[in-house]
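Onboarding guide, step 5: your first structure request.
Type a short instruction followed by the sequence, for example:

Predict the 3D structure of this protein.
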Amino acid sequence: QVHLAESGGGLVQAGGSLRLSCVASGIIFSTRTVSWFRQAPGKQRELVARIDGASTTNYADSVKGRFTISRDNAKNTVYLQMNSLKPEDTAIYYCNSGYWGQGTQVTVSA
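The system replies with structure tokens like these:
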């Protein structure tokens, strides 16, 4: 059975940093594309960052230069390092690799 578990969310002031983690069981991340999405209240879920099996990364324009996606194959974990956070980054952040995690809340105060 596949399970993705996100963690690392929380409340942070604007300009601060958080690192989100997504740990997988039942699938191997190293050969798969793994994405981070986010959904703010009243808005559609949007792609934030993606890393493929060759570790090629892509980012939404709104987070380029501030967020970094990476993977640790030994831990079967994908990370999202978020720096210079803005109030508009407030959302539930989800991990996806053909399956969805439960999400982790990120709240950025002004």
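Each response can be followed by summary notes, for example: The first strand starts at residue 3 and ends at 7.
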